[in-house]
Amino acid sequence: KPGTASFKESFMTLLRAVVTDGDERQIFLFLDNLQYADDKSLEVIDSIIRETELKNVLLVCSYREISTPENRVIPIFGSKEDTSKLTITDVTLRGLDVESIKTLLSEMLKKEESLVMGLSKVVLAKTDGNPHFVKKYLNSLRSGGYLKYVKHEWIWEISSITTGTNISDNVVECVATNIIRLHPDVQSMLKVASCIGFQFPRDIIDRY
User: Fold this and answer.
1) How many CB atoms lie within 10 A of CB 8?
2) Which phi and psi (to 5°) does residue 106 adopt?
């Protein structure tokens, strides 16, 4: 089972075998959604960080700061006691600003940046610059008929978008609306799945 002592030892043995002294190969490990890691998994990551025999290893971990309990993940990377010989870089990703959204819309809609400025401001206000929410919101505009492809070009009306009764005030409501549009059987399956987690055997869903 991942996170147990035997798994940690086996994993570290594998890394030592792959990364040896004098080997020019570099190992890149990327661990996503670290905010969901349990204590045992964090211990494995801590062992990787503090293993002095490992050479040419780049470990990249990502986590949502808003979803991370205080003093849970960060101390592993912030302790100076045993990591003085390591290079630790902390990168905070922010939401897109209006200029970035404007560039994105200009390239996506094949329009001059000056022509998409108004739409960019609306998108920023609705999504707070979250790239995932930006995509969801634009899909909602298109499916709602507010963003149309007519005669080989994209067209829209800001007044219709801002006053449209079918456009949610925020992306959470937008996503919820998309779920409501799904078949009732699919909605029931999602309700069960949401109680289990993001990974589960298919036979569990089949029971319902």
Assistant:
1) 19
2) -60, -45
Specify the pTM.
0.59
Distance (Å, rounded) from C-alpha 47 to C-alpha 52? 10
Going by C-beta distance under 8 Å and a sequence separation of 6 or more, which residues neighbour residue 67?
35
What is the DSSP annotation of 49-67?
Answer: HH-TT--SEEEEE---GGG
Give the tokens for residue 183: 């078949």
* Of 97, 94, 171, residue with least CA distance to 136: 171
Cβ-proximal residues to 27 (8 Å cutoff; 6+ apart), any chain: 15, 18, 19, 56, 57, 58
Cα–Cα distances (Å) from 88 to 61, 76, 91, in that order, read: 11, 11, 10
State how far the Cα of 46 lies from the Cα of 35, in Å rounded to an integer: 15
Q: CA-CA distance, 175 to 133, in Å (whole number)?
A: 9
> Could you read off the pLDDT of 88-110 as tens digits, one per residue?
788 888 889 999 999 999 999 99
The model's pLDDT over 2-32, given as tens digits with 9 standing for 90+, comes to 445 677 788 888 877 777 656 677 788 898 8
Task: Categorize the per-residue pLDDT at 114 as very low, low, confident or very high, splitting at 50, 70 and 90.
Answer: very high
Ranges of H-type helices in 71-127 = 74-78, 98-109, 117-127
| Helical (H) or strand (E) element with 27 | strand 27-31
Q: 151 — alpha (psi -120 to 50), left (phi > 0) or beta?
A: left
